[in-house]
Amino acid sequence: MKNLASALIISLAVILAGCSVPVNPGDPETQVISRLGKPTATYQDGNERLLEYDQGAFGQETHMARISPDGRLISYTQVLTLEQFAKIKVGQSKNDVLRLVGHPLDTIFYSRVKLEGWNYGFKESGVWNSLMTVYFDEAGIVKKLENGPDPRFEHSRFGL
The whole model's pTM is what? Predict the structure, then answer.
């Protein structure tokens, strides 16, 4: 029984070690890309570059690797969070939103009100399956944001 407990503890340690971030601040950009793969998008943010890594179950995670002007990793963070969405302000452009939270899960155009919605599925507070929608006018300027339950997980709404 003692050997079984030890084996479980060792297995858990190995699993948790595999979940750690594979990059560290100061790593060269080439090392970041070799460990994480080709980014899904790249953005210029002042004199720094952002490497977008869209990943996770059901598109609920997007990480941004911020690269300094000298080609070294500054940070690697999950950006689909309420805190990051709160940085999106009315009047910002689509490019501003892309630099903050990356590409949306999907988009939809509401012809009656002439707004384009960018949908971002995410785990709100690490628990709730939520959907943040950022609405843009025809000029590509943020008009409003709206958060609610992600309908992809609302099986009871459809009698399932």
Answer: 0.82
